[in-house]
Amino acid sequence: MDRLRERQGQVITAAVITLLVLVLLATGEKESLVIGVITGSAYGFLALGLVLIYKSSGVFNFAQGEFGTVAVYTLYLLHFDVPYGFALLGALGVAVLMGVVVERLVVRPLFDAPRVTLLVATAGVALLSIAVQIWFGEATARPVGRALPTLDRFTVLGVQISDQRLLLLGALAILAGLLAWFFNKTNLGLAILGSSQEPTATELMGISVKRLSTIVWALAALLGGLAGVLAVPETGGFAPGVLTVAFLIPAFTAAVLGGMTSLPGAFLGGVIVGVVEAVATSAPIFEDIPGSPGTLLVFVVLLIVLVARPQGLLGKAG
Amino acid sequence: MALVEVEDLRVSYENPVLLGVSFEVEEGETAVLFGLNGAGKTTTVQTIAGLLKPDAGKIRLGGTDIAGRPPSKLVPMGVALVPEGRRVFPALSVANNLRLGAWVRRANGSEVDERRELVFEYFPRLSERVDQAAGTLSGGEQQMLAIGRALMSKPKLLLIDEASLGLSPALAKTVFQVVKRINDDGVTVIIVEQNVGVLPYADRVLIMEKGTLIFSGVGDEIQDANLRESYLGKAEE
To answer: DSSP readout, B160-213?
Structure first.
């Protein structure tokens, strides 16, 4: 029965993707496909972090975007003085440090509290982080350089792709492979999966569930940091709380769309959300919709998927 | 020589649950802990396994006081608990459940392989289900997996909470027979039970009531008809 449901999810996912691609090619919106996949990759990074934490502790982490923003802020501070590669590593290091600190100071003391308490606590962390950024640097936009400044080297389906965008896509592909290997082949990855299913039994195997929690938060922070340092420089600048404001809701939608507990689902959800947003922004049919047609269309797609399949595209029921 | 010595063990949640429990289990014995629901049996084994911290009292393993130590310290020392309700990892395969069971032995690959072969020797059915998700196994197979997973850590002391719960009498008997084999291979066993069918396999019987130990006996004392009438008849109800 489980296998049947899993197969059903895969069929629906394949149908949604095929339909999306066919519609885009038929309506001449192939540029939206390319731009959407690239933007969606950044959502996918953030969504992977959200799913990791949700799988291991059952909490939606409102501070996930701030791991990325803090990484971008660190990159901005460092990249004038040190080579870009070192600045990137420093930025990711600070994001991971923030993840560990949040886990030790906020999550660990609330380990046995109701999940809603923890959810509100992570929202508090996000608000505190944004407030500190404003306090230190005022609420102004700042420029931040790209890792790869060469512009528009390749053209795919009529869209010129910058090296930075290629880097984002490549990093996501490599990371997806690494995560799949980590969770399927390593003892630590298996222990994290085990603790998300049966924390007490995991403890009884001699595994410290609290130590696993620290590792999961560090990993999620790394993913958030990667989303920040790879996607934000492409836009040329950032303001306080940029990833929370601009990326968190699409990433959350991506995670729910994918199934909230499925890592490949989060990745796929990110790409779907990115493409749908890009279509709504550029297709003439949506021109007359006031406000943000991208957000509207994303939520319409989310509603349709959830009505047809409440556990998301690749999630498991119950 | 006593492998486990429990002395004046007191544990409470919101209210006191264990009110000063003391007993010993000799190395190589199979001890059975009987009692009605709420007697404190599960609390006793969970405290020995490190899932609960005692308010007071001592738990010695081979002479070393282990009271209050977490499972991450106790499993490497040779304590393993098969929890009530099996608690297998439902979405992981049988093979991966066993792999996680060997967490404290993971540095030694050949030892892990040996343990896995031993588990398959005790429970041949598991070797036929190696790639199957644990959540899709039958109740009996899940119990076998839960015991096999605990054995992967190479325990000296195996605690089993409600081994026969939800199993048919024939399957429960099979499980008890395998537990006897495990015990014969040198593992000291403490089983929490409400099923008197385990009695033929017991070296020692401990009976609990309302957080206290009301009977401890070995050998012929276990087979005493009065014992069955006085205590175990009640436990069976």
So the answer is: EESTTTT--HHHHHHHHHHHHHHHHTT-EEEEE-S-GGGGGG-SEEEEEETTEE
* pTM of the predicted structure, to 2 decimals: 0.83
Residues in B closer than 8 angstroms to A193, CB to CB, are: 89, 91-92
Q: How is chain A split among helix, strand and coil, in percent rounded to 5?
A: 75, 5, 20
Residue A178 at interface with chain B, using a CB cutoff of 8 Å: no
Of A135-144, A245-254, A301-310, B217-226, which gets the smallest average pLDDT?
B217-226
What is the nearest CA distance from A316 to chain B, expressed in angstroms?
Answer: 10
Name which of B82, B94, B103 to mutate to probe chain A: the one with the most chain A Cβ atoms within 10 A of its Cβ: B103
Interface-testing mutation among B72, B108, B136, with chain A (most A C-beta atoms within 10 A)? B72
Given pLDDT bands bounded at 50, 70 and 90, which one contains residue B237?
Answer: very low
Residue A313 lies in a domain: no
Are A190 and B76 within 8 A, CB to CB? no
ipTM field? 0.91
Q: For chain A, positions 179-218, list CB contacts with chain B under 8 A.
A: 187, 190-191, 193-194, 197-198, 200-208
User: Is pLDDT above 80 for A53?
Assistant: yes
> Which structural domain range is residue A113 located in?
2-308
A301: in domain: yes
Axis-axis angle for helices A30-57, A187-197 (nearest 10): 70
Domain at A208, CATH number: 1.10.3470
- Domains of chain B in start order, with CATH, are 2-78+155-236 (3.40.50.300)
